[in-house]
Design a protein that fits this description.
single chain, alpha+beta, Thiol Ester Dehydrase, Chain A, 5-stranded antiparallel β-sheet, 2 helices, about 30% helix, globular
Length: about 180
């Protein structure tokens, strides 16, 4: 049973699920000199914006409305991106909770001067919260994995969520303890 079907509010009807393919998307962009850092490669912040843009499109598609970035986990830059590279940012929903969802993103680059296949140059996981017009969290449809790979991604996303929540709890407890001891005031 989905988290939505077992939610705390029995009066809230279950939202029909959506398959992973329903919101999966790819954004592509040619890198230019305006995208470079002092080393002459594409600035990581440019890649991060493309990642957030693709993930936001997927989150909005999946949730059927506005969704905002809540966090970004594990942004990995695997290879440099250069001027002229055609960058493809592929994103899909991996996991959904009641009002939030994790979007997995892979970043690929086609080298303008090579005939080799696209190379994976980065990856990230982002958490989005679906919101209404007032910015209040709203329910999202459960994600329905379609393949074994989608199911593996859903399970891995649940592990990342468990770790995020445990880290947040541990930090809160430490801060409360230090405050009670009169430290860090």
């Amino acid at each position: 049973m989905t988290e939505q079907a077992t939610g705390a509010d029995p009066d809230t009807p279950e939202i029909p699920g959506k398959p992973t393919s329903a919101s999966r998307t790819t954004l592509s962009h040619i890198m230019t000199h305006a995208d470079t850092n002092l080393l002459g490669t594409v600035h990581g912040g440019v890649i991060m914006k493309l990642v957030d843009d693709a993930a936001g499109a997927v989150a909005g598609r999946h949730s059927g409305g506005p969704a905002v970035t809540a966090s970004m986990d594990e942004m990995a830059f695997l290879e440099p991106v250069r001027v002229g590279d055609l960058v493809h940012v592929k994103a899909q929903v991996n996991w959904t909770g009641r009002t939030s969802m994790e979007v997995g993103v892979r970043v690929l680059a086609e080298r303008w001067n090579e005939s080799a296949p696209a190379t994976q140059v980065g990856s990230a996981y982002l958490v989005f919260a679906a919101v209404d017009a007032d910015g209040t969290p709203r329910p999202v449809p459960p994600v329905l994995p379609e393949t074994e790979r989608d199911e593996r991604r859903r399970q891995e996303a649940q592990i990342r969520r468990t770790h995020r929540l445990a880290r947040r709890r541990a930090i809160t407890e430490l801060r409360e303890k230090r405050a009670a001891e009169g430290l860090d005031v």
